[in-house]
Write a structure and sequence with these properties.
about 500 residues, alpha/beta, about 45% helix, binds zinc ion
């Protein structure tokens, strides 16, 4: 009698200890960035004319969207059974009016899991591996985010689809009802999303409208083969919905859609194969994009969509881009870079009348310079705070980033001096702006690389706790076995009476 009580008590104590050892370090050492308003440099920018919202945004996450579903790209598996997997209506619209589109090949960070990828679009940061644990409990994000900034600026944001986004940012996105995301056999899962988004587009009273479509991903998991009819039909369904949105949005709304990750031929994802990491970010705007109207050839160097550099962009680059498009401060922990390709056709102020104004537009360049500079300040500020909080980086790593930042600042100041001296029409100005933006991009890249490849201390402590826990567990089991074998337990008095 006494003995079983003793074992129960010891087991309960062990369970408590396990829980404590596993989760306490995570909460103790995680950097918390919820109080960001005073840290957010962009809120201190008083030149409000730069922050005129440029467009409204309808944003669609297409779960499991592979890049090769777009345009004329050969399927990455070289499997003829997948040749027909294309967004056919979308591709037709693209080739008819390419000036209305910008298409990026986007690289998903690892692991390619929806629960980790989706919040990235909104925070501009790469979640730590440790947050896999908390993510499944869908804890609200404490980080600064695009939805949070929308909320602070009294903008109207709506959402429908997979609950992840809503659960991460519960206070900031208005939604209709909860959509269950775990029944992978349900091919009707996107229908309520279509209905809701349709309704909101018709009402046309939003600043930010977001949807997360699940059917494509579900059908991949469900059939475990991308060549299945179900996947093919899901692609057709996504295609139909996207083109429908393109037709329905007004002239001031930009439609942006993106995949959270790709999928392997067997319908799964999570790893780092090109099939899983190659996804897309696509924008559609009826009035077109500045990149196609602007003839300063140098600026092409900073454009990164497939028609320019065929470069890969990161999913987190969407975060500062959304901020700039909607006139919001960039989220505090953003490490992404602005996708300059997505600047819409419109009036950029102050107008500068250059003698050969048909060949370039100085006002647009000034806007790019300004926005990229703000992003540089933001990214650098985050990096400094992150480094101070965790002391993760070596002196050399830190100095390298610091040097890139100083160079970007020097170039920005040089361009600014030219503006002060009314030299915006001169060639040297265009050259300097391009260089300054290139430098900003380099800085973001470097910081993203460093932060995403350095294991934070919280994770190290977590693994240490985990190892200790396993050792204690093993000792406990051995002790129990030993006591039973030797029958010494009858004399054990160390537990509660
Ligand atoms: Zn997914």
């Amino acid at each position: 009698m006494l003995t079983s009580k003793a074992f129960i008590a010891a087991t309960v104590a062990f369970a408590f200890f396990s829980f404590y050892a596993l989760f306490y370090p995570l909460y103790m050492t995680q950097l918390k960035f919820h109080d960001t308003s005073d840290l957010n440099l962009l809120t201190q920018d008083n030149s409000t004319r730069w922050f005129e919202p440029k467009v409204k945004v309808a944003f669609v996450i297409v779960d499991g969207l592979r890049f090769d579903y777009l345009l004329n790209y050969e399927n990455i598996d070289h499997d003829p059974a997948l040749d027909n997997h294309k967004l056919k209506k979308f591709n037709k619209a693209y080739f008819k009016k390419p000036e209305r589109f910008v298409v990026f090949r986007a690289l998903a960070d690892l692991p390619t899991m929806t629960v980790l990828r989706v919040p990235c679009f909104m925070t501009g940061n790469v979640p730590r591996l440790g947050s896999v644990l908390t993510a499944f409990g869908a804890l609200p994000a404490e980080e600064d985010s695009v939805p949070r900034q929308l909320y602070l600026q009294n903008k109207k944001s709506y959402f429908s689809g997979d609950p992840i986004l809503k659960e991460y940012f519960p206070k900031y996105l208005e939604s209709d009802y909860k959509i269950g995301s775990f029944n992978i056999g349900d091919w009707t899962v996107d229908q309520p999303v279509h209905t809701y988004i349709d309704k909101k587009i018709k009402e046309n009273n939003f600043d930010f409208l977001a949807a997360h479509l699940l059917r494509l991903d579900h059908m991949g998991h469900n059939t475990a083969h991308l060549a299945s009819h179900q996947v093919f039909n899901a692609i057709k369904d996504v295609d139909r919905f996207l083109v429908h949105l393109m037709n329905k949005i007004d002239n001031n709304t930009m439609l942006i859609f993106a995949g959270d990750h790709g999928m392997v031929k067997g319908g799964s994802h999570g790893g780092g194969t090109p099939q899983e990491t190659n996804t897309a970010i696509v924008a559609y705007y009826k009035q077109g994009f500045m990149k196609y109207q602007h003839n300063n050839r140098r600026l092409k160097k900073i454009m990164r969509s497939i028609n320019e550099t065929d470069d890969q962009v990161h999913q987190i680059d969407l975060t500062p881009t959304l901020s700039m498009l909607m006139g919001l401060p960039t989220p505090f922990s953003n490490m992404g870079q602005i996708l300059n390709d997505l600047y819409p056709v419109g009036d950029y102020l102050p107008q500068v009348h250059c003698p050969n104004a048909t060949t370039f537009d100085a006002a647009f360049e000034m806007q790019l310079l300004h926005d990229n500079h703000l992003n540089t300040l933001q990214v650098w500020n985050y990096f400094k705070k992150y480094h101070e909080g965790q002391s993760l980086f070596s002196h050399q790593e830190y100095s390298q980033v610091s040097y890139l930042f100083q160079q970007a600042e020097a170039l920005y100041k040089a361009a600014q001096t030219m503006i002060d001296q009314s030299q915006q029409c001169e060639d040297v100005f265009h050259k300097t702006v391009t260089k300054a933006i290139k430098q900003s991009q380099k800085l973001s890249n470097q910081i993203h690389d460093l932060v995403s490849t350095t294991t934070p201390h919280d994770l190290v402590i977590f693994w240490q706790a985990f190892v200790i826990l396993v050792l204690v567990g093993i000792s406990y089991v051995l002790l129990v076995q030993y006591l039973y074998k030797t029958k010494d337990y009858e004399h054990v008095t160390w537990a509660f009476p």
